[in-house]
Design a protein that fits this description.
Elements (H helix, E strand, L loop, with lengths): L3 E4 L4 H12 L14 E5 L10 H16 L2 E5 L7 H13 L5 E3 L5 H7 L8 E4 L9 E6 L1 H15 L4 E8 L2 H17 L4 E8 L10 H13 L4 E5 L3 H11 L3 E6 L15 E7 L1 H13 L6 E5 L6 E3 L4 H4 L2 H15 L10
Parallel strand pairs: 1-3, 2-3, 2-4, 4-5, 5-6, 6-12, 7-8, 7-9, 9-10, 10-11
Antiparallel strand pairs: 11-13
Family: Belongs to the BMP lipoprotein family.
Protein name: BMP family ABC transporter substrate-binding protein
Keywords: Cell membrane, Lipoprotein, Membrane, Signal
Length: 347
């Protein structure tokens, strides 16, 4: 039976107590009092229910609960929180005996770097960030530009207006990888296709990952300007872009999870051509499994097209029936794996 406990950020006094305990040699165990292994994930901006990135991480935890018999704990982010909040959250999760403790998203980088040395027997997973490393840190990263290249190929093949759009949640290097791959895929397929690029917010404002209304407005603007295919890498905000595309009867391309199959987007699925998938669920599961087997992963664990760590979903029957598009996508995938196509990681 699946059991999940949610924790919330506690007060400053409790945080101080937790940090004091770790400073005095606090230890972490991977076994609950009942003998059941405990694992935890701390979600990125938007939290569980984003139909995308965080939900993919949750799927990995859910699989581990079912197949490995672990007890999972989920920790949700708070709006406007900073690094001290994340440090507190990860400290509490580690002190509670969870192993591994996984921070979902690059925003957890500084917190993982601070907390991990205090719990040397606990493995910390850090998704989408290689800048913070350590002996007990596993950096789970993906070649997002490769999957995005395939989306660009598909977009260039299906557009009838020779105009497509890319929407990024926040203009940061990680999302620039999505943009770079997509634009390159489009241009390599048809140089005459125009790609409209828009970012919803700029750092330090990360609201572009959590506000569907921003994604919806951006997509509508691109559609009004002639785009008939919209690819959004924007977390929860991407749901708004999908809604706008569907209502305009244009194609949307999802991200991270297979968004055609997400229940929260069922009303729009007929217009979700495909999704650029990242096997975040597999990466989370593999890390949990490695800890349970006594051989915890550490260092950079990279997932690309060759490992099926990124890819292009084929759940929409309308997409699979586009034989010329599928053929072009398959050829591009083979060429990337064979290193015949080198996909850029920056625009």
């Amino acid at each position: 039976m699946r059991r999940i406990t949610r924790i919330a950020t506690v007060g400053v006094a409790s945080a101080a107590l937790a940090l004091s305990a770790t400073a005095c040699g606090g230890k972490s165990s991977n076994t609950a009092d009942s003998g059941e292994p405990k694992v935890a994930i701390a979600y990125d901006i938007g939290g569980r229910g984003d139909q995308s990135f965080n939900d993919a991480a949750y799927a990995g935890l859910e699989k581990a609960e079912k197949e490995l018999g672990v007890k999972g704990t989920e920790a949700e982010p708070s709006e406007g929180e900073g690094d001290p909040d994340k440090v507190q959250r990860l400290t509490e999760l580690a002190r509670s005996g969870n192993n591994p403790v996984i921070g979902v998203g690059f925003a957890y980088g500084p917190a993982v770097a601070e907390v991990a040395p205090k719990f040397p027997k606990t493995t910390f997973g850090l998704v989408d960030d290689t800048s913070k490393t350590g002996k007990n840190i596993a950096n789970l990263v993906f070649n997002e530009e490769q999957g995005s290249y395939l989306a660009g190929v598909a977009a260039a093949k299906v557009t009838k207006t020779n105009t497509v759009g890319f929407i990024g949640g926040v203009e940061i290097p990680l999302i620039k990888k999505f943009e770079a791959g997509f634009v390159q895929g489009v241009k390599d397929t048809n140089k005459n296709v125009n790609v409209k690029v828009q970012y919803l917010t700029q750092p330090p404002d990360f609201g572009g990952f959590s506000k569907p209304d921003l994604g919806k407005a951006a997509a509508q603007g691109q559609i009004d300007a002639g785009a008939d295919v919209i690819y959004a890498a924007a977390g929860l905000a991407g749901a708004g872009s999908i809604e706008a595309a569907a209502k305009a009867k244009k194609w949307a391309i999802g991200v991270d999870s297979d968004q055609y199959s997400q229940k929260g987007l069922a009303a729009y699925k007929d217009y979700i051509l495909t999704s650029v998938t990242k096997d975040v669920s597999g990466a989370v599961f593999n890390l949990i499994k490695s800890v349970q087997e006594g051989k915890p992963q550490n260092g950079e664990i990279r997932y690309g097209l060759e490992e099926d760590g990124v890819g292009l979903a084929r759940s929409n029957p309308a997409f699979t029936k586009m034989t010329d598009v599928i053929k072009a996508v398959d050829q591009a995938k083979a060429d990337i794996i064979a290193d015949k196509i080198k996909v850029k990681t920056a625009p």
